[in-house]
Amino acid sequence: MSRVAYVNGQYVPHNRATVHVEDRGFQFADGVYEVWSVFDGRMADFDGHMTRLHRSLSELRIDIPMSRESLTQVLKETIRRNRVRNGIVYLQVTRGTARRDHPFPPEGTPPSVVVTSKSINPMKSDATAANGVAVVTTPDIRWGRCDIKTVGLLANVLAKQHARDRGAYECWMVDDMGLVTEGSSTNAWIIDEHGKLRTRDTQANILKGCTRTTLLDILKEEGIELEERGFTVEEAQRAKEAFFTAAGAFVMPAVSIDGVKIGNGKPGPVATRLRELYIERGTRDAV
Ligand code: PLP
Hints:
This protein is of the alpha+beta class. 31% of the residues lie in helices and 27% in strands. Strands 7, 8, 9, 10, 11, 12, 13, 14 and 15 form a nine-stranded mixed sheet that branches. The longest helix is centred in the C-terminal third of the chain and has 17 residues, at 269-285. Residues 35, 156, 182, 185-187, 207, 209-212, 245-247 line the site of pyridoxal-5'-phosphate.
């Protein structure tokens, strides 16, 4: 079945879906994005991603391209047309197309909107989680507004490739204080050597992950205490468990960090349980 993309008001064959060469997303990475997990044809953490999208647009003073209802409709229709049961739906909004010049384009320039959706085999993702994955680390070289989900992802791309080049799945980035900020496309968590669940606080220069936020709710319900406090790579290497979260990855156990085995080198019980709970909740609350 051929894929379909939504581009500026039209559903077009994916292999012919294009934006203009002077789109500001292409020229300046002047745009934002969101990714929803799709469970059984419906979107998980729907409101969280939608709210973050509006915040990202507002922080960058990009016009909201359409009503929330219309956008929801487009997201659902793109999922439907691509017959995605399990996978992701991707939305990108840029400051639109205008003659290349750094300042914002003339008022009224319509933002560009692109939506794509693709299937991900849930069995494959579960098999990966059952074995756990390797993580490596690298200095965090990103700009100061990582709370905004912009398409300016070059440092993240380099970090992810750093992982791939070393046979690892994800790369955790480390700031000037020696603390892990987050993964190249995920939030980072450990259960430290004292048994405390820890993840970086959102006052730090990280993205407030929607999966992270939902997991915070689950932890409250389960009575699991969380410390939102940074940790060093050495602390992570001494941890009982390590894992990372994101739409698409859900909760993914890490079994080594920079070649050092975490715990017994197998996914830990807490990460495994939190993954189950997250998927259960995602499926239940998806819209
Ligand atoms: N951190 C970064 C840098 C990301 O790119 C992402 C997701 O793309 C996340 C964290 C996780 O966010 P979410 O759980 O909303 O997918």
